[in-house]
Amino acid sequence: MQPRRGNNNTIHPVLGPTPPGGGAGSSASSSASNNPAALYSELVAKHYRKWFPWLIPVFVVINVAMFLITMYINDCTNNSVSCFAGFLGRFSFQPLKENPLLGPSSTTLEKMGALDANKVVHEHQGWRLVTCMWLHGGILHLLANMLSLVVIGIRLEQEFGFVRIGLLYVISGLGGSLLSALFLRSNISVGASGALFGLLGGMLSELITNWSIYANKVVSFITLVVIIAINLAMGLLPHVDNFAHIGGFLSGFFLGFVFLIRPQFGWVNQRYAGQGHSPSSPKPKFKTYQCVLWVISLIILIVGFTFALVMLFRGVNLNEHCSWCHYMSCVPTSKWSCNSQPASCVSDQAGNQFTLTCSNNGKQKTYTLQNPTSSQIEGLCTQLCR
């Protein structure tokens, strides 16, 4: 799924219009004085420097490189009976019926570090909670996520710097992986969507915590809420891990109150007032509600992550305690099914004839194969059970 955002003037309206005259001369100063939003823009330009966005492009390069490495290891031409775009050789895709996203097999993704809750819990492979966010199920999945990352991430990194946005991205991705592992116990999960939803959540909390400095507050809030709601609603479709989206969004939302807090207008204005100016009542750097939100959010994050990790490594399956929660990730309709059990087949061999029977749906098909590998048989089973 591809997170989206509105245009820059809507999400960050206070950084928009430049006073007439390009900010030069007394006429510009007079115009800014009559426009609080423009005045704050000038003061912010003095107080904050624009960061050069290098970390988000590095994240994009890492994700693309990991996809290429995954496809190289997948080696469809040697490990599957049929491939899509076979002219790509070793980088050809699994059959579309097996992977419509134009990518590798589930076996390869699992080998590369996809999130598998059973391996995390029973084989102590906790590193999968982090590695899964750098893998993608196919080139379509990769392009959608990387386009979203560039559109959302670069603007945030320019405004808040690589440290805060980097931490927001990685911690949100971990939060998405945790919630996914607590609910999805029979499937693997990959993708940067949890981290991307963390950036969206951070944008929403940044708007709330810096509420007093924004122009067009209500319009900005409604626009961002609608964008988030549409993206979460798309997560109700099958084969999309909406638990990772929800976990990433909640993590990013509370992290935004911690990492993306800005000083209030009065403090910035006071700091850059003339040297002869002595305010009768000095303004604090942050408003009371900003500090309260900072403390509450930090407590929620620490308690939430600790609680989730303890439950995960104790083998807790939240589906057993919430009979309706699975609807948050997929809502079945007459058009599609939410049954995403891993493919399982029974094979019967007679010479070069292999008869596979899908245990999921009972379908049966006979193939003529010469010394097939286990990967080839597994690929045929996946296609048969689709």
UniProtKB/TrEMBL annotation:
It comes from the Eukaryota. The chain crosses the membrane at residues 51-73, 133-154, 166-184, 190-211, 218-237, 243-261, 291-313. Residues 1-30 are annotated as: Disordered. It is a multi-pass membrane protein. Its main location: membrane. Serine protease involved in intramembrane proteolysis. This is RHOMBOID-like protein. It comes from Oldenlandia corymbosa var. corymbosa.
